[in-house]
């Protein structure tokens, strides 16, 4: 078994003090937000300075440092640096934990989804783990994503992207995900997080129309079946006006959304 815990910058013996490069009490080279050390024209990135000791963090910093030199502008979002433990299943996370939220007194909500309920994980016979999405209660912005799953490192990329763009749980939940894929578990966890709020009139209407759609399909199918078996039974036909009413409700909801300048979930691009 290889135990590889703890890494540290090895700056002793480099004679940094002779050229005036400042080092902190942990041996890390001190830099400012533009990767400048205390010596003009010497920049520093990666493991030897602050932040997580990860290859992709060093890579982002390297690019940003060159951009600062080239154009005077660079960017690394330290709140969205992913971490992955490459075990089986993998463990991957980005952003805040529940403990962080409690310590920072952030009002938060949590959505989860177990991999055992994900169709692709079931087909792959690889159902260990879950997805957890942590969101800010007031804005529903995603604060953290935590995944245990065989493909957690790859699944996490969606959470990192969502955080980079300041997405809410609803943004992720309303994004179409291919089926069957493990990424659907991220969507479901996001849906679980944001669905804990009080439902709006639009949400209620949308769910009513979806339910009516399903009822209609069921009635039409059963009508066809019953017509064969039992001709006078025409209840589904009698209920058709009900479906028409819900259809009108959907049109009204779409109009209401358009007036508010929002995209209607009931009238997506498929219309
Ligand atoms: C066993 C192990 C596994 C890891 N696995 C992962 C992982 O799965 N994912 C991940 O993101 N990160 C991983 N890391 C961390 C990752 O390797 C580092 O975060 C990353 O390489 C840091 O990049 P860097 O450019 O800051 O430093 P480095 O990649 O260490 O580059 C520093 C370079 O400077 C050179 N150098 C040092 N001293 C001198 C000197 N005096 N003069 C001239 N040259 C010098 C070194 O030879 C080296 O080439 C792992 C690290 C280890 C040790």
Describe the structure.
It is a single chain. By secondary structure, the protein is of the alpha+beta class. It has helices at 16-19, 55-71, 98-103, 119-123, 152-164, 169-173, 184-194, 201-229, 235-238, 240-259; strands spanning 83-85, 90-95, 108-114, 130-136, 142-149. Strands 1-2-5-4-3 form a five-stranded antiparallel β-sheet. Helix 8 (201-229) runs antiparallel to helix 10. The longest helix has 29 residues, at 201-229. The relative contact order is 0.08. The model is unreliable at 261-271 (pLDDT under 50). Flavin-adenine dinucleotide binds next to helix 2.
Overall geometry comes to elongated
Relative helix content: 40-55%
Low-confidence stretches: 261-271
Rg, Å, rounded: 26 Å
What is the beta-strand fraction?
5-15%
**Strand count, sense and closure of the main sheet?**
5 strands, antiparallel
How widely separated are the two ends?
57 Å
Which hetero compounds are present in the coordinates? flavin-adenine dinucleotide
Helix and strand composition category: alpha+beta
Going across the major beta sheet, what is the strand order? 1-2-5-4-3
Calculate the mean pLDDT score and round it.
86
The topology string of helices and strands comes to HHEEHEHEEHHHHHH
- DSSP summary: helix tally: 10
* DSSP strand tally: 5
